[in-house]
Amino acid sequence: MAYRDIRIIGDPVLRTECDWITDIDDSVKQLVEDLLENVDAEGRAGLAANQIGVSLRAFSWNIDGEIGYVLNPRIQELDFDEYQDGDEGCLSVPDLWYPTKRAWYARAVGIDLDGKEVVVEGEELMGRCIQHECDHLDGHLYLDRLDRRTRAKAMKDLLAKGL
């Protein structure tokens, strides 16, 4: 397994918008392999490429026993008729969980390693994962979506942890 270190809050790669993949070469194939291998661990629902230090638009997921990936995802639809406001965490913000409002349903469109269109969609945890990972690829962390009071608590908690 190609174990990759997870980048932690404060690393500039997490705040940089990822580049679109224009050429599916061996390095992109290796990236997908690394994303799939590294998301396949207990407690991991998703992993964006920049979380392992690669500033390309790609993420993997591990939801309800299904592991997959998508390249160049872009959110196509969010259903705000119903929200979810459960606790959200992030490998790049270790051991801290905060209530984060998200759309109940999300749909993203991208491509696979063959350049064929891929649709990734889901409700609840899958919907949250799609939104969370696409945020990463846009240079955002879930902390950016917290309400003002919760964000202030999160910043205090980060300082207490030395992050």
TrEMBL record:
Q: What is its EC number?
A: 3.5.1.88
Keywords, ordered alphabetically: Hydrolase, Iron, Metal-binding, Protein biosynthesis
Q: Which reaction does it catalyse?
A: N-terminal N-formyl-L-methionyl-[peptide] + H2O = N-terminal L-methionyl-[peptide] + formate
In this protein, the active site sits at 133
Q: Recorded GO terms, molecular function?
A: metal ion binding; peptide deformylase activity
Q: Which GO terms describe its biological process?
A: translation
User: What are the binding positions for Fe cation in this chain?
Assistant: 90, 132, 136
The note describing how and how many cofactors are bound reads: Binds 1 Fe(2+) ion.
Please give the cofactor(s) recorded in the UniProt entry for this protein: Fe(2+)
- Give the signal peptide, or none: none
Q: Which Pfam families match?
A: Pep_deformylase
Q: Which domain of life is it from?
A: Bacteria
Please give the InterPro entries that the UniProt record associates with this protein: Peptide_deformylase, Peptide_deformylase_sf
Q: What does this protein do?
A: Removes the formyl group from the N-terminal Met of newly synthesized proteins. Requires at least a dipeptide for an efficient rate of reaction. N-terminal L-methionine is a prerequisite for activity but the enzyme has broad specificity at other positions.
Q: Which HAMAP family match?
A: Pep_deformylase (MF_00163)
Q: Which family does it belong to?
A: Belongs to the polypeptide deformylase family.
The name this protein goes by in its record: Peptide deformylase
What organism does the record attribute this protein to?
Actinomyces respiraculi
Q: Which gene encodes it?
A: def
